[in-house]
Design brief:
The protein is an alpha+beta fold. Helix content is 35%, strand content 20%. The strands form 2 sheets. A 4-stranded antiparallel β-sheet has the order 2-3-1-6, sandwiched between helices.
Length: 170
């Protein structure tokens, strides 16, 4: 596990809380980006959940990368890939993500994602519980480990597909 002062709880929300991530292909775009960041040694990913309109992560930004740069690149890449996906599969949805901004004509993510440093093991455990119980609270499943787009199964020593995730503890 990374040093306890090196972990960050990160939350990003889809523009106006629209359920864009209900599309599993969009969730897979997010996962592919996370896999890339891990493979390129920009982050160590410790936990995640991808909900229909937001996501939560616990990650460690690896030196010499800067937190703001990694977050910007992650959100920028996923936004472009999701917009490209929509252009091919659901062009009628694009109008929902059009913005009147000088630097873009489409926006997927809300501005100013939440990024909070984790300072203690108690806070880490609280954030892990929050992440893993989010699908239960939303009514997606009965037990956290039943939800596919989460690391809850991995933390409960069950089979999972998240070999790029480094659990904080099991």
């Amino acid at each position: 596990m990374a040093g306890k002062y090196d972990l960050t709880f990160f939350t990003a929300t889809i523009l106006e809380w629209m359920p864009l991530l209900a599309d599993d292909t969009c969730k897979d775009i997010v996962l592919d980006s996370l896999r890339f960041l891990v493979a390129e040694e920009r982050v160590q990913l410790n936990a995640f959940v991808i909900m229909n309109n937001h996501l939560h992560l616990i990650w460690h930004i690896l030196h010499p990368n800067m937190k703001a740069d990694v977050q910007r690149d992650f959100l920028g890449f996923t936004a472009k890939a999701i917009i490209k996906h929509l252009k091919h599969t659901a062009p009628e949805m694009l109008h929902s993500y059009q913005v009147n901004a000088g630097d873009r004509k489409n926006q997927v993510w809300e501005r100013n994602p939440l990024s909070v440093d984790i300072w203690t093991e108690a806070v880490l455990r609280q954030k892990l519980s929050y992440i893993h119980n989010n699908p239960v609270k939303a009514g997606y499943c009965t037990y956290p480990e039943e939800y596919r787009y989460s690391t809850a199964a991995q933390y409960n020593s069950l089979p999972d597909d998240w070999h790029f995730v480094t659990p904080c503890f099991v």
